[in-house]
Amino acid sequence: MHTPDVCRAPPVVDIKSPGTRDDRIKAMATHNDFSNGLPVDVPAATAWAALEHMEHWPPNLATVRSVEADADAANFSRSSAVSPTNSVVLKTGHRYLVRTSEGPVMHCRIAEVDTGTGLVHIEARLGPLRSCLLCSVEPTGPCACVLRRRQTYPGMIGRLFTLCFGRREGNETTAYLRAWADYARDLADRR
After folding, report:
1. Mind telling me which InterPro entries this protein's record contains (predicted)?
2. Which domains does the chain have, with CATH numbers?
3. pTM, whole model, 2 decimals?
């Protein structure tokens, strides 16, 4: 995978993850960075399935109005597995839109999906603002895992954004992990 320069940042050493995922997580670390992890009592496969249904649970966040397929993206193919008119497919290259509660629309692209290491890399843009998001599932036992989310806003525009909205983004990171965990627990209860 080639990560665009806009998503590259100086490495840090405070994030510990097994395998090659560690290099990708380190590459995104910066002071414009919001990251956290949340242990959950569901199997890693169920947490991954919850991530695959990402159009359902992020709208529970105060910062997100909706997540929907980008109908204008030429390379987007819809999946009828969940919703034939509004599905986001967790596949490299697929595009979707995140409508924020304030009104602006983030244009998102799934840059990488690595099911072997449980990592998803998403790139988003809103005008000159760029965002890089890593979501991962790390198994810790047969019925437990850690959900991780790291979002960074590279460049000068990213720095200005985080100066103005740092608290909002920090809160969103925590809320995102909780919504993801709640959806994963609901899936586990249905199985």
Report:
1. START-like_dom_sf
2. 19-190 (3.30.530.20)
3. 0.76
